[in-house]
Amino acid sequence: MATTSGTRDAAALLVRATPVLFVLIWATGFVVAKYAAPYAEPLSFLLVRYAGVVVLMLVLALVARARWPRGRAIGHLAVAGIGIQAGYLGGVWGAVAAGMPAGVAALVVNLQPVLTAVVAGLTGARLGRVQVAGLALGFLGVVLVVSSKLTTVGITATTLGLTTMALLTITIGTLYQKRFCPEFDLRTGQVVQFTASILVTLPFAFAFESFRLDWTPQLIGALSWSVLVLTGGGISLLFLMLRRGAAAQVTSYFYLVPGITALLALVMFGETLGWFAVVGMVVAVLGVALATRAAPPTPQPPQ
């Protein structure tokens, strides 16, 4: 009995710790992108990363004799994976490689909870005054952060466009996965998702890059962290949280990421944020927190 109780307590502790671990791991993704940028072109790096994940998850799936998706499930997983992996990672890595500060990139794409609330409103869910106020504050926060960097190198139409694309694709991919394929084996499912991401990314890499990879210790370290920790840990934790909670509840954890990312970027790269940017981050965090609060129930018609 004591063993059973201890197992349950450990399992409960792991569940409570999942969001914290996810946020800490996810925040490193922007720093890794900045760290690897001098040694590899972004899409070329991502292709190697995707291939590494496919090999890793394929080996794990074969050893465990995991169940493989069939029929429409394969297509649904591929579509969700293209949004969550190829579109999101391609946008973020492309923006950071083009010079966008890691902290700013993190802030823009981590407004995903605001966009999720907007999509919910467009599909008929009721948004209360608190949620509307949160959306306005979130937008104001982005404006403040961007305005403080307009005269610096790295904030351009290209980098903002890439981060906006990343924001849109991960939001759509997350909602799509929650709707059409919430339950799947994490090993075989990620083989499908990252294979689809390779097929989508490869033509763009051929068109815009020369497949330059300087196999320095820094690049090898960034690649290893990306495959084993960011994907093996971060993406898997995200999928586990999506199984247990609504998409809006899960994505609300993203608003914790920008502050951690900015701190890491400050320590590792000496990036600075002006007072407008600091205020903007605070306002954006408040806005996202308000926008993702539970909306009042939708009134039901009389019976």
Strand content: under 5%
The total beta strand count reads: 0
Uncertain stretches: 298-303
Give the end-to-end Cα distance, rounded to a whole number of Å.
Answer: 49 Å
Helix count from the secondary structure assignment? 12
Percent of residues in helices comes to: over 70%
| Computed Rg | 20 Å
Compressed to H and E, one letter per element, the order equals: HHHHHHHHHHHH
Mean of all residue-level pLDDT scores: 80
Entry summary:
Helix content is about 75%, strand content about 0%. By secondary structure, the protein is an all-alpha fold.
Topology (elements, then pairings):
Layout: H1 2-36, H2 42-64, H3 72-97, H4 102-109, H5 112-122, H6 129-147, H7 157-180, H8 186-208, H9 217-244, H10 247-251, H11 257-269, H12 275-291
InterPro entries: AA-Vitamin_Transporters (IPR050638), EamA_dom (IPR000620)
Transmembrane segments: 12-37, 43-64, 76-96, 102-123, 130-147, 153-176, 188-208, 220-240, 252-269, 275-295
Subcellular location: Membrane
